[in-house]
Write a structure and sequence with these properties.
By secondary structure, the chain is an alpha+beta fold. The strands form three sheets. The protein has a seven-stranded mixed β-barrel. A six-stranded mixed beta sheet has the order 2-1-3-6-5-4, with helices on both faces. A three-stranded antiparallel beta sheet has the order 10-9-16, with no helix packed on it. Strand 7 and strand 8 form a beta hairpin. About 5% of the residues have low confidence.
């Protein structure tokens, strides 16, 4: 099921004056429904902070479902809906309408809710009330249907979403991981292993290039295939690449592009690199090497495991 962020918007809770009861109540319902809680955050009723937090969860962490609780009423400090609308590309008015309709069967005060919902890239943001009871009741009213909307938004209802086409980036199609490879020493070919662990702001555990400016290296199988006529026995890791991919033109992704790979999130930091002074062993053998032109490097935004067959998806 989908990863979720829960953002409690409350001046008192953020200052430790009042215990946050709404966040845990929402989390319990989500866990029971099979969702993964990726982030639980408490912030004050400050519009700028709310907007920054929503964008961080959507753009940087690529979390599919972002739920807020609090700040949806008539108080001058209640600005969660305004912050939500400001960061969304498209609104989803049917969700708050359904929540209000359900709540009106419980209390006439439900008509005073100003909750909003909308899409920020490939993330769905939904405002819930600040009361633990009301937050749970509202979420229960829409939770069974949210998974269908998320499937459409994430492009998992039948075929992979070519998110690059929608965002103006090169289309990724259904991109996958072919091989994951590491080496304990720099300057050597990497060896394929079943699974690698990506560590945030570090790189791949056990790899010599971790904790450097080029934390993770990726090279497309399509790029490697260009040299197979002369070197048919090229093995994964031969270019010292950590991850071999298929179905995505890596070197056309702009620096700054964020992508999900396996359960990790990364950001492109560099396209290509300078070759060794006299060329690597492959360049000396066949007169060419694709890594300097078509390999890319990325930093790890959020850790996770990556293995052969995992999907790669560019984030909006």
């Amino acid at each position: 099921m989908y990863r979720t962020a829960i953002i409690t918007v409350s001046d008192k809770a953020s200052q430790g004056i009042r215990e946050d009861m709404s966040g845990p109540a929402i989390a319990a319902l989500l866990i029971e429904a099979g969702y993964e809680i990726a982030q639980e955050i408490i912030i004050p009723d400050d519009r700028a902070i709310i907007e920054q937090t929503l964008l961080h969860c959507a753009d940087t962490l690529c979390i599919p479902l972002i739920l807020t609780t609090g700040g949806t009423g008539f108080s001058p400090r209640d600005v969660t809906p305004e912050a939500t609308v400001a960061v969304c590309d498209r609104l989803a008015p049917g969700i708050p309408e359904a929540m209000r309709a359900h709540s009106l069967t419980i209390t006439p005060r439900a008509m005073l809710s100003r909750a909003a919902a909308g899409m920020c890239g490939q993330s769905l943001i939904v405002n819930l009330p600040g009361s633990p009871k009301a937050a749970a009741e509202n979420l229960e009213a829409v939770l069974p249907t949210l998974s269908h909307g998320l499937a459409i938004l994430q492009g998992t209802t039948g075929e992979c979403a070519a998110v690059g086409a929608a965002s103006g980036r090169p289309s990724s199609g259904c991109a996958t991981v072919v091989s994951v490879n590491i080496s304990e020493t720099k300057g050597r070919q990497k060896t394929p292993i079943p699974v690698v662990t990506l560590i945030a702001d570090h790189g791949i555990a056990g790899d010599a290039h971790a904790a450097t400016e080029r934390q993770v290296s990726l090279l497309a199988a399509e790029s490697i295939d260009k040299l197979r006529e002369k070197l048919p026995d090229l093995a994964p890791g031969a270019f010292a690449e950590n991850i071999v991919t298929e179905g995505i033109v890596l070197h056309t992704l702009p620096v700054g592009t964020r992508f999900k790979i396996g359960s990790a999130r990364c950001e492109v930091t560099q396209i290509g690199k300078d070759c060794h002074d006299h060329g690597c062993a492959i360049k000396r053998a066949v007169g060419d090497c694709v890594m300097p032109r078509e390999g890319i490097f990325a930093r790890v935004l959020e850790g996770g495991e990556v293995r052969s067959g995992d999907e790669i998806r560019v984030c909006e």
